């Protein structure tokens, strides 16, 4: 079969909602796009452990501490599923991780913002996991089978995370004046970065059109962002907190909330490495990897010795 | 249910705090690995152990709080006691060190905890017995996991062996405290609530020796090392104040707030 025929066949499958599986023929560019996107997603889970991990040692109650630990651990699990999904496309976990450490691979910019107070843990759960869910629910129907299946497992846990984050804020919103102020401050700082999570505007997003045709993505950045705004505005009312956007208002004609313009200069700066925590986050991951090198080497050496001994016993 | 009189009640509460503090302080230390482990699977594993331990601590504190009555809760016990009122063994509050230190400490402690909890199963106090029974399943996994890692690192590369030898030297002097009873442990033993802790030592030593041998690590000579003690009676290392300052920060900074 010619490449054109293979491509037609491939696209026909995608159009018929038949999942593409690892052994199926796929265009090189489809594979590359997936490797880029899934590994970026995996790295986001792993780097995302850092800002929240920042409050594990200081969580204010034992119950909150246990919930936060379990949450950050879930993110590690998400990273694992996703690295495995990348491996089905022929790229090893080590290679994928090295690409993160060398700066070649990206992760979600949201994690380059600092978690300054306990309320940030609530805001991250509510807004950041909330934004992630909308993207991930869409990805449950993505055309690549292993990615879609990983997303189904992940989504179940993410909805817990969002509820737990909201619950932290709800408690603060009913607390002392200081706690209320803490809550509002965290929302003020995390609101715009959360909107940025959906990426550039439609039309300015480099990979969007092709990804839609391949049904890797099924909704545009702006569609998802609108969905997020509509959802969060309603939830913010329960908290009696405000969102820091004077242009935010219901638009009867559109049936959606209008909202203000994202600061795209900030957006691109954080993408390029100038966010408040870009350097720390990457360094923390590199440190963990480098300081763990002797452990991984020892484990490999021991496993090899074991194998040798077993082989000798058999012989 | 076991019903203590006043003196016995105070002693029982101390005993519960001791059991809870051991679990909480090690949980706090281990949780610092979350997001920084040497490999993703082990990041998850050590966090799991941290979660198990915090669960155990909460069970002991909740029981202690119910005996104390008044406004006492698991959180006032964890967050509003100073270092002199914490009763955990010194070993557990030491800084994590490298992965080898963390593993070896976990191994020493988990083997001890397993011996101890087994002896709590026949406790006259049915709540303690129930907590021990539930926790033993978790501890069995901690023992297995940490033993495997001690063996892997001891019998791994030259570097990993050297690191484990170093950890052994650093931590050994803190293992004697497990078996030197505090007043509340003696009382617990008299009342049939807990075991005679000195009697746990041979079993612990046996198991530790076996694993160290498989790890090709030289076991320290028995009785040659001066053992550090004090944690069980609230006399801690300098590290403890910082551990609590960090852990208790929000509760201390915003007294009376609900989180
Ligand atoms: Fe996640
Ligand atoms: Fe999450």
Mean pLDDT of chain A: 96
CATH superfamily of chain B: Ferritin, core subunit, four-helix bundle
| Oligomeric form | heterodimer
Instruction: Write down the CATH class of chain B.
Output: Mainly Alpha
Portion in strands of chain A:
under 5%
Envelope shape of chain B: globular
Q: What share of the residues of chain B does DSSP label as strand, in percent?
A: under 5%
What does this structure look like?
The complex is a heterodimer of chains A (315) and B (259). By secondary structure, chain A is mostly helical. Chain A is 69% helix and 2% strand. Chain A has helices at 3-15, 28-47, 49-53, 62-87, 93-101, 118-139, 145-173, 177-196, 208-213, 221-239, 264-274, 278-291, 293-314; strands at 249-251, 256-258. A two-stranded antiparallel sheet of chain A has the order 1-2. The model of chain A has no long low-confidence stretch (mean pLDDT 96). With 259 residues, chain B is mainly alpha-helical. Chain B has a single domain, classed as Ferritin, core subunit, four-helix bundle (Ferritin), CATH 1.20.1260.10. Chain B is globular and about 55 Å long. The longest helix of chain B has 29 residues, at 40-68. Chain B has helices at residues 6-31, 40-68, 74-79, 90-93, 99-120, 126-154, 158-172, 183-190, 201-214, 239-247, 249-253. In chain B, helix 1 runs antiparallel to helix 2 (40-68), helix 5 (99-120) crosses helix 7 and helix 5 (99-120) packs antiparallel against helix 9. Chain B has eleven helices and no strands. Chains A and B meet through helix 3, helix 4, helix 7, helix 12 and helix 13 of A and helix 1, helix 2, helix 3, helix 6 and helix 7 of B. Bound molecules: fe (ii) ion (2 copies). Residues 75, 129, 158, 161 of chain A line the site of one fe (ii) ion.
